[in-house]
Write a structure and sequence with these properties.
There is one protein chain. With about 375 residues, this protein is an alpha/beta fold. It has two domains: about 250 residues, Type I PLP-dependent aspartate aminotransferase-like (Major domain) (Aspartate Aminotransferase, domain 2); about 120 residues, Aspartate Aminotransferase, domain 1 (Alpha-Beta Complex). It contains twelve helices and 13 strands. The strands form four sheets. It has a four-stranded mixed β-sheet, with helices on both faces. The chain has a three-stranded parallel β-sheet with strand order 3-2-4. The longest helix is centred in the C-terminal third of the chain and has 18 residues. The structure holds pyridoxal-5'-phosphate. The site of pyridoxal-5'-phosphate has 13 residues, from helix 3 and helix 4.
């Protein structure tokens, strides 16, 4: 979330520099008119920051999921297993590929419950798509072990967990592919934008082709005479987004660190038994951009939501955008939305409050919020 809070002179200078150096907004060609290939440079910057070998910038997080699934070969008749606490984009991408979403329920991390995963695998399962919701990684060791046993690729949706870690590695870099979003509400923003992290050479080739009308980009041949390797689409990122992304990426370590301080201040104050904290896998370090707490008592919960509004924090997704984050609400999509796992996820989510960790409030503000929330139950 805080990326947009830090947009300033650096982003403005980067955009002006792009204009001054030739104003090429397209990621390919126009070599004589340009000094940089900013989209390609942003990919290299991400690989250096994340410690991964390959990444592809695309036009959104939604596009990133679709590109990853298409590159894996997800198509008509296939199934993709994902989770009920999610964002609608994951289901849209699966359905847009012609496949069917199969929905696992949530564990105490609120993410995909590995204990429910294996029973959902069929001979149609083409990919597993765990989602690191609101900054906390799913239990990836368990999920990846099951996936490996069945030889099914894992696409990590880390759109809401940019900067989080698992087993000491950045979330999004552990599966065969991982995806980030840089929309305006994410940890860092390019306005709209996304990244596909690529850990498999075949998936990488297909992802590059699919996001760019199938272009093979044969070396030494202009794009006009190039050939298509597959039926593709246009999910390219523009240079405008990339120059902003290069600046925002430089702020990510600061954002994660500062968010962590605020998150810790809030967490320390919340001790009353009325508040049940979200489980964080021992292997995980969150991105810290959202603090989720379960409040089972309806009255305390109502007061807590009121207090968050009064103190100028508000809530984030739970409960204010529940319809976009729980699969039970997506019966326009043509899959069974009312399985016991999804209904259980709904019941779990209805008890949660998600608090945005914003850099516009100080560490002391978050401590004061924690105290005030805690005070509601005594
Ligand atoms: C978990 C998750 N996946 C995917 C997306 C889609 O990203 P975008 O908005 O960049 O298309 C989002 C965006 O909110 C998200 O939260």
């Amino acid at each position: 979330m805080p990326g947009f809070e830090l947009i300033g002179q650096e982003e403005r200078d980067a955009l002006n520099a792009l204009m001054d150096e030739g104003g090429v907004f397209f990621a390919h060609g126009f070599d004589a008119k340009r000094k940089h290939f900013h989209v390609r440079e942003l990919e290299a910057d991400f690989c250096a920051y994340l410690g991964c070998d390959d990444a592809l910038c695309v036009s959104s997080g939604t596009a990133a999921i679709k590109v990853a699934l298409k590159a894996i070969g997800v198509g008509h008749g296939d199934e993709v297993i994902t989770q009920g606490f999610n964002f609608i984009a994951d289901f849209e991408a699966i359905i847009d590929c012609g496949a069917t979403p199969v929905v696992a329920g949530s564990d105490d991390t609120l993410n995909m419950d590995p204990a429910q995963l294996e029973a959902l695998i069929t001979d149609k399962t083409k990919a597993i798509l765990p989602v690191h919701m609101l900054g906390v990684p799913a239990r990836l060791n368990e999920i990846m072990a099951i996936a490996k046993r069945h030889n099914i690729p894992v696409v990590e949706d880390a759109c809401e967990a940019v900067g989080a870690k698992y087993n000491g590695q950045f979330a999004g870099t552990l599966g065969q592919a991982g995806v980030f979003s840089f929309d305006y509400g994410k940890a860092i923003t390019t306005g709209e934008g996304g990244l596909v992290i690529l850990n498999d050479a075949d998936i990488a080739v297909k992802a590059r082709q699919y996001h760019d009308h199938g272009h093979i980009n044969l070396p030494g041949i202009g794009r006009g005479l190039d050939r298509a390797g597959m039926v593709g689409f246009n999910y390219r990122m523009s240079e405008l987004n990339a120059v902003v992304g290069k600046v925002q990426l430089k702020k990510l370590a600061f954002i994660t660190e500062q968010s962590g301080k605020r998150y810790a201040a809030l967490d320390q104050q919340i001790t009353a038994p009325a508040f049940k904290k979200r489980a964080i896998p021992t292997e995980a370090t969150p991105a810290y951009d959202t603090y989720i707490v379960e409040v089972g008592d309806a009255q305390i919960r109502e007061h807590a939501i009121q207090l968050l509004g009064d103190m100028g924090f508000g809530t984030k997704n739970l409960p204010d955008a529940m319809n976009w984050h729980c699969s039970v609400y997506w019966d326009h999509m043509g899959f069974d939305t009312r399985t016991p796992a999804q209904l259980a996820t709904l019941a779990l989510l209805e008890r949660q409050i998600a608090i945005p960790v914003t850099l516009g409030k100080s560490v002391a503000d978050f401590a004061a919020l924690g105290q005030a929330l805690n005070g509601l139950s005594v």
